[in-house]
Amino acid sequence: MALSKTAPTRITIAAGNEPMLVDRAVADTFAAIRAIDSSTQRVLISASSDDGGALIRDAMSPNLFGDATVLIVTGIDSSSEEVDAALRGFIAEPAEHAWLIVTHPGGVKGKNLLDALRSAGGTEIDCKALKKGKATIEFLNREVRLHKRSMTSEAITALYDSIGHDLRLLVGAISQLCSDVEHDPISIEDINSYFIGVADVAGYTISDAVWDKRSVEALRSLRWAMEASDNVGVPTVLAMASGLRTLVGVGGMAGASDLDVAKTIGVPPWKVKTLRQQWAKWSGDQRRLAAAAVALADADGAVKGGVKIGSSLDAEQKLLALERLVITTSAGTRTLN
């Protein structure tokens, strides 16, 4: 998505329906033009506005001070007749002091105008929404490299799993980490430290470690979460319960394709491989898996106040119950005396 240091073409098209990428394309293009002439002014116009055509023609007219103008026209798929005519006028006779940036979300609406802008030499920047999973992970890795930094694959995955498919939040999180964390590579410990309480990083990180039987990491992540937040118990138990349901779902679809498994249990296809690896660690002793389900049910009652009337636990007892759950489950044992 990065633009070259040379001057952009007179027309730039930000095409796609990912708001963050569209905003970045517009901002980067304007910055590149502004770097050539710091006096450049920006005019923002909605293509569907009633006065859009008049505003475009006005921006194309030479101004008193001779300042350059960047004309940003958003949503040309919904252009009014006046805006369509004004943009075609720009194509026919580009104003020497003006630059044009347009946005189009994709689809067939406004395609005739879009093709005309392309034929006029417009530079198109791909802003289509990224597919979930592998494509987004690759984008996040590139984003880290733009900061001239590195991040472990576990950290990238934990960030993505917890924040979800919100590109703006993900990019902001990476920017914050790259700014504040001095060492490389940025690790899953840094993710836990910075984003516990902002998203459900802790619960899903703990859950992944538990069902992968990484006891030390599971307990370490839990204790970090306890230090950072007073609301650890319920999110952690919920995340572990979700992980257990997913794990059992994968185990029940042996021989199915990754795509079929993903559709059935509701996870991205790229995550199925990891889940199969987790299942392989549990499938040999499903009695312990059943014991883990019982332990989860007990812990759910404990962290919510108590299973029976009058059995409510205090804060420290709830945390002890949570530690007991994480230790016994991740270690594959049934009880902890």
From TrEMBL:
Reaction equations catalysed: DNA(n) + a 2'-deoxyribonucleoside 5'-triphosphate = DNA(n+1) + diphosphate
Entry keyword annotation includes Transport: no
One Gene Ontology term, aspect cellular component: DNA polymerase III complex
Claim: tRNA-binding is one of the keywords in the record: no
EC number: 2.7.7.7
A biological process term (GO) from this entry: DNA-templated DNA replication
Transmembrane portions of the chain: none
InterPro entries for the chain: DNA_pol3_clamp-load_cplx_C (IPR008921), DNA_polIII_delta (IPR005790), P-loop_NTPase (IPR027417)
GO MF entries: DNA binding; DNA-directed DNA polymerase activity
Keywords carried by this UniProt record: DNA replication, DNA-directed DNA polymerase, Nucleotidyltransferase, Transferase
Annotated family: Belongs to the DNA polymerase HolA subunit family.
This protein's name: DNA-directed DNA polymerase
The organism of origin for this protein: freshwater metagenome
Upper classification of the organism: unclassified sequences, metagenomes, ecological metagenomes
